[in-house]
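Researcher: Please translate sequence to structure tokens.
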Amino acid sequence: MTKWVHKKNRESDYTDYIVKDPTLKTTFRTLLSQKKSIQQDLADFCKVDKSTISKIVNGIYIPDLIMKLKIAEFFDVDTRVIWRDKKEIEINGNMY
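Model: Translation complete:
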């Protein structure tokens, strides 16, 4: 279930709404485990900070299309495996 979290931005007067998606975190955990990798490996491949990957995994930051493509390339999957509208998806015969 997607959860919207209200977050007051301290640097300005506007408010951000961030999406917390527990299935996204599970998907990343599964893909990293299958590849025997850690978030730092993904960050190195994408040429970004590990904190950026952590924000993506936790649903705090939604990457642009180029970053989504790089991440999908790292895992050798289609972007729809990671960012999907469906509730379940098959990865190597397992349903998630």
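Researcher: Any highlights?
Model: The chain is about 45% helix and 15% strand.
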